[in-house]
Known about the structure:
Layout: H1 3-13, H2 17-24, H3 28-35, H4 42-54, E1 58-62, E2 65-69
Helix pairs in contact: 2-4
Amino acid sequence: MDAKQCRMARSGLNISGRELADLSGVGYATIARFEAGSNITDENRLKLAKALEEAGANFSRRSGRASVSVPE
Length: 72
């Protein structure tokens, strides 16, 4: 999952950055930095992805295109 996919998933799931912080155990400031383009640890990236996947997001990357699907 990259920063753009994180933003797309949060938007599609209607989850705020602070809610994602609570769900993932990653600090809100770290999420904000990540979504703004800064690097974060692989451990934190995995925690974010796992929390979003548990909320229903599905991440994929094919032919140079990143996508996220969420339940209706």
